[in-house]
Amino acid sequence: MNARLLVAGVGNIFFGDDAFGSEVVRALGAHRMEGVRVEDFGIAGLHLGYELVAGYERAILIDIARRGGAPGTLYVIEPDVDAPGPPPDAHRMDLQNVFAFACALGGGVPPIEIVACEPLQLDEGIGLSEPVVAAIEPAVDLVRQRIARALASMSRPEGITV
């Protein structure tokens, strides 16, 4: 694995604003970055769990989060992935379950940040609401800043350049 940083979009494109992570990753995907793997995991939570224990030094996940702000508000969340919770359940695809699954796999989960957007609607249907569409470019900029910060803070073993 050449990538040291995982940037993962998560969400369900069939539930309105839940597609935010996928849309941000699609916008980011046009700009390749050395040392960074950018991937849309969608609803493949188990695959994301496996990827989180694949040896990355850090991970940035992009998702939605209801935190009470105005729709389109962006947040940076640093979850406690080691906090005790229910055992992993292959039928749940929320991030708490993904973290529990990754921890159960062993091998260590890297430090994680979540760049999240406050949704307006999560009803069945394809397409983001206007406030969430307007948050995509600012989210791309924010993720790029977080990538630069993460790469700068990671140790650089001899022979590896970023």
Describe the structure in your own words:
The protein has 162 residues and is α/β, with parallel strands linked by helices. The protein has one domain: Rossmann fold. Helices cover 32% and strands 19% of the residues. The chain has 5 helices and 5 strands. The protein has helices at residues 20-29, 45-52, 95-105, 130-134, 136-153; strands at 5-10, 36-42, 58-64, 74-77, 112-117. A 5-stranded mixed sheet has the order 2-1-3-5-4, sandwiched between helices. Helix 1 links the parallel strand 1 (5-10) and strand 2. Helix 1 (20-29) crosses helix 5 and helix 2 (45-52) packs across helix 3 (95-105). The longest helix has 18 residues, at 136-153. The chain is globular, with a radius of gyration of 15 Å.
Q: What is the topology?
A:
Blueprint: E1 5-10, H1 20-29, E2 36-42, H2 45-52, E3 58-64, E4 74-77, H3 95-105, E5 112-117, H4 130-134, H5 136-153
Parallel strand pairs: 1-2, 1-3, 3-5
Antiparallel strand pairs: 4-5
Helix pairs in contact: 1-5, 2-3
Report the biggest beta sheet as strand number plus sense, adding barrel if it closes. 5 strands, mixed
H/E element sequence: EHEHEEHEHH
Determine the strand fraction and express it as a percent band. 15-25%
For CATH, the homologous superfamily is named as HybD-like
Number of helices: 5
Q: What would you say the CATH architecture is?
A: 3-Layer(aba) Sandwich
The main sheet orders its strands as 2-1-3-5-4
* Rough outline: globular
Question: How does the helix and strand content classify structurally?
Answer: alpha/beta
Mean pLDDT value:
86
As a whole number of angstroms, the C-alpha radius of gyration is 15 Å
Instruction: Flag low-confidence runs.
Output: none
- Number of E strands: 5
Total number of domains: 1
Question: Alpha-carbon distance between the termini?
Answer: 14 Å
- Output the CATH topology: Rossmann fold
CATH class annotation:
Alpha Beta
Helix content: 25-40%
